[in-house]
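To: structure desk
From: M.T.
Subject: fold request, one chain
Message: Could you run this one when you get a chance? Sequence is below, nothing fancy, just the single chain.
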Amino acid sequence: MSTYHRTRLNGGTIKLYVNGKLNSISSSTLNWSYVNNPPIYIGDSSDAYWEEFKGIIDDIRIYNRTLTDEEIESLYTEGGWSEN
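Reply: Done. Structure tokens follow.
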């Protein structure tokens, strides 16, 4: 069984969705500045001490705005996923 994860960052709030449903909310003091266009690592890290992800990652999307809860659930069901 596959699990679908989506993370949403808006201001200092991070929301984690699992299979289209809100799972947890936390706050962050991270300063997300893209002024210098740093690279984005997916399944890996710029830190040599972290091991790379071993598995399958599919359908990665990065948006320039925060998606609504409804849009996130719609993206989950759009791929043919269901709770069953």
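Reply (cont.): The longest helix spans residues 69-78. Let me know if you need anything else for the meeting.
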